[in-house]
Amino acid sequence: MDVILIPGFWLDASSWQAVTPALDQAGHRPHPVTLPGLESVDADRTGIGLADHVDAVVRQVEALPGPVALVGHSGGGAIAQGVADRLPERIARVVFVDAGPVADGDCVNDELPVVGDEIPLPDWSVFEDADLTDLDDELRSRFRERAVPEPARVASDPLRLSNDRRHDVPVTIIACEFPSSLIGEWLAAGKPWVRELAQAKHVDYLDLPTGHWPQFTRPAELGRALVEALAR
């Protein structure tokens, strides 16, 4: 199957490099994405918003034959949800990696520190301890060296959804910094941040205990988890 891999903030297609071998070996065709404004540190990020990132992935789906699976890490999950809303008949499954579907009108994260038209990778102190599990000093250095500032509006623009057929698309959550059992508790309690997930008709879970960036901390295991998710 064609699998579009959507990175989270500050990352480009190369962030999936250690994850894709497992997909290749299972016979899938991975397509890691570099989103608009993430091409380089020097790229122009002026005016780039969340809809531009959704549009970019929609074009990739439309260029491929047959059903497509989407994998969205972190903020890339909102993009995957936007694409599933636009093209539900083309999406075989959405896999959220330490992420979940964002509801209509919500944004990814409007609390990140903005500098002009972009959000540079912040100091590590901005993140929760659970985010940084297994991300040792060497990995943090490698992450920071390759990080590209995120277009500011991608974090703060509301996601617009209008097609209820998106709820028919099967969903897998790969839970990393918190266990899937906690997501179940949130759903049972009717927490607002899982209200979109609550409407999905087909949801399953895989636990991969680590921090928020498993493509760095446990890439081989993440690859195997993706293969398992796509086989369901």
From TrEMBL:
<dbReference type="Pfam" id="PF12697">
    <property type="entry name" value="Abhydrolase_6"/>
</dbReference>
<dbReference type="GO" id="GO:0016787">
    <property type="term" value="F:hydrolase activity"/>
</dbReference>
<dbReference type="InterPro" id="IPR052897">
    <property type="entry name" value="Sec-Metab_Biosynth_Hydrolase"/>
</dbReference>
<dbReference type="InterPro" id="IPR029058">
    <property type="entry name" value="AB_hydrolase_fold"/>
</dbReference>
<feature type="domain" description="AB hydrolase-1">
    <location>
        <begin position="3"/>
        <end position="222"/>
    </location>
</feature>
<protein>
    <submittedName>
        <fullName>Alpha/beta hydrolase</fullName>
    </submittedName>
</protein>
<keyword id="KW-0378">Hydrolase</keyword>
<dbReference type="InterPro" id="IPR000073">
    <property type="entry name" value="AB_hydrolase_1"/>
</dbReference>
